[in-house]
Known about the structure:
The chain is α/β, with parallel strands linked by helices.
Amino acid sequence: MRLVQMTSLAALLAGAALPASADDxxxxxxxxxxxxxxxxxxxxxxxxxxxxxxxxxxPDIATLSVPVGYEALKxxxxxxxxxxxxxxxxxxxxxxxxxxxxxxxxxxxxxxxxTLAVNKPGAEAGVADFADLDAHKDAFDGKxxxxxxxxxxxxxxxxxxxxxxxxxxxxxxxxxxxxxxLAQVGRNESAGTPxxxxxxxxxxxxxAIDITYLSGGDAQFGPDFGGATVHTLARREWVExxxxxxxxxxxxTFDVPMENALMGDILNDGMDPxxxxxxxxxxxxxxxxxxLDGVTTLDGKPGIEAVKEVxxx
Length: 313
């Protein structure tokens, strides 16, 4: 009887010494997600990549336009998405919700905004509201600078032009990427030329450019200057198969000052998003407690210790 008790105790002690399983299937090792080429999503994707890599996962990040990225998530070509901006991307979200295969894991950012704005020459011309623009069409060369083709915000601008809202029916939407748009606005700023363009926060453009966000665009971009929240979405099947990775994402939230700093490192200092994220995490290790609560490495070791070891090297 004593031998049986000792054997049982030894077995229990041996079991206690083994690491806990992450409860994620082998197929979870590669985490597939996308970004539309926006620096804010590149920054948050970089944070996720650093954490996933330290935990033993392999992040696979594709650059896809907003419509293509949502189709990829819907069709199972990607697993999750950190950049569901609402209300700007509501129609894509409605489509995913109707499909039933996607769930929201967390609202990862609040305090964002997204609407049209003018540079300092535009504000000095007297433009502070959407309704002020058309009276100054010649000064703006009748152009509204947008981001990449297919982006929901561009679609809102084009719909506004087609409906002749605010008398803008004879204006032109200039579509380009985020960096090309900001480069054009910067050139106009240097030349003293007014510009109207898509602007948003978080983004270091708010410090680099003297921006005036325009009032009056509630119908197009929502109240409070396009006040927005950003949400993390994932495939239900992936969440069920990969609960440890999904737990990390449920707890991974950001704030505007953090994203401003990361985006500044990427845009102004030329840092890779993951490099910028790793440096930021090393300077703010206190954030790891909430992000990694109950999260393990893929092979079941304590997650927070693994991440600290990587980012503090």
